[in-house]
Amino acid sequence: MGSNFPTSLLTTTLRGVSGINSQPRDEQPAHLPRLYDIENCPYCRLVREAITELDLDVLILPCPKGGERFRPQVVEAGGKAQFPYLLDLNTGKALYESMDIVAYLYEEYGKGGLPLKWRVGPLQKLGSSLASAPRSTRPQRARTGKLPGELLELYSFEGSPYARPVREVLGALEIPYILRSCGRSDWRDWLLPGVRNALGIVSEGKVANRRLLQQEHGKVSIPFLFDPNTEEALFESERIIAHLQAHYGT
Length: 250
Ligand SMILES: N[C@@H](CCC(=O)N[C@@H](CS)C(=O)NCC(=O)O)C(=O)O
What we know:
- The chain is of the alpha+beta class.
- It has 9 helices and 8 strands.
- Strands 4-3-1-2-6-5-7-8 form an 8-stranded mixed sheet, with helices on both faces.
- The two termini are 21 Å apart.
């Protein structure tokens, strides 16, 4: 992935374990919470980190600069173009402000209250802004692509340096997608897929989406894309990006 990977890894490293570890959940909410999101926005990143930590599946509606597909929905619903914006049809709640959204998600879907680190909002925002810098040279403006008939499903976790470039492409093309959370909850989850393979270790972690990948597709490797429109199931970020460009690119 050329120059793409090192800066993505740097962004991940600068956030430590944030957006990597998960508290596995037994079931998902009835409706997917909707996140109007900008991939490279440091405030949206914080919300996506909490989404990984809470092991939540959500619907991502990309709103890149210059985007016309979903941005108007936010202005109409909330009165201004500010991101992140969360709309939760399970409770009817609609929120701006990253820290308010994180606190809401923990209150509604968390198990033990808001973790200490999330109580120091300004520090998190500063850390996330620094971590966003290495990716600031990536194209971030909308290049609106074709709208898939059925929603794509991306298996990802916020800290994955391989999943980030895929999310950036989906974001720029303004392609909505179901984000299937695949954070880590077990030491085996930390081994790279090739190492697990070589050692004969099967990843039987507690995160449901990881288990599903293992059971249905024979391995856990992030990112993974399922495209119901072409019925393709794809591992490997470069293959996924090529698929997106070929089918939905402009
Ligand atoms: N205090 C807000 C700041 C949100 C914010 O400034 N987001 C930027 C994107 S990083 C934004 O909405 N910019 C307007 C735009 O993109 O049109 C929060 O923490 O959520």
